[in-house]
Design a protein that fits this description.
140 residues, mainly alpha, 0% strand
Length: 140
């Protein structure tokens, strides 16, 4: 039996089965049409507009390291769109966050922790903690 004959008999059998259940047939035909008309109405009510080419800031993946990954999440939380290529789009650059607040926070914390490990006097650490508390109280 040829392919088209088999397809025609299968479609005829399906139509005969569906014709016996008219309510189910109406729903199966009307539901996709209803969704299609909703899509058409949304498309007509909001016509497309032309937008410039979008370049997004790079975001490091977790495999690049924890610090670049956290910086990518925090520094680009609003996900801005730029008209021109961003500095991080160049090959081989992991992140362009060297001047970010998070980068400075981590470098300051690293310097403070390294300083406190070299210094054996606990008084200097207490001074630093006292200043941090004052800073926290003044900003809050």
């Amino acid at each position: 039996m040829a392919f088209w004959t088999q397809l025609g008999l299968l479609l005829w059998k399906n139509f005969t089965y569906r014709r016996r259940q008219t309510f189910q047939l109406l729903i199966e035909v009307a539901w996709p049409l209803f969704i299609f008309f909703i899509l058409i109405s949304v498309r007509l009510s909001y016509p497309p507009y032309e937008q410039h080419e979008c370049h997004f800031p790079n975001k490091a993946m977790p495999s690049a390291g924890t610090l670049p990954w956290i910086q990518g999440i925090i520094c680009n939380a609003n996900n801005p769109c730029f008209r021109y290529p961003t500095p991080g789009e160049s090959p081989g650059i992991v992140g362009n966050f060297n001047a970010s607040i998070v980068s400075r926070l981590f470098s300051d914390a690293k310097r403070l922790l390294l300083y406190s490990q070299q210094d054996t006097s606990i008084k200097d650490v207490q001074k630093v903690l006292g200043k941090l508390r004052k800073l926290g109280n003044s900003s809050g």
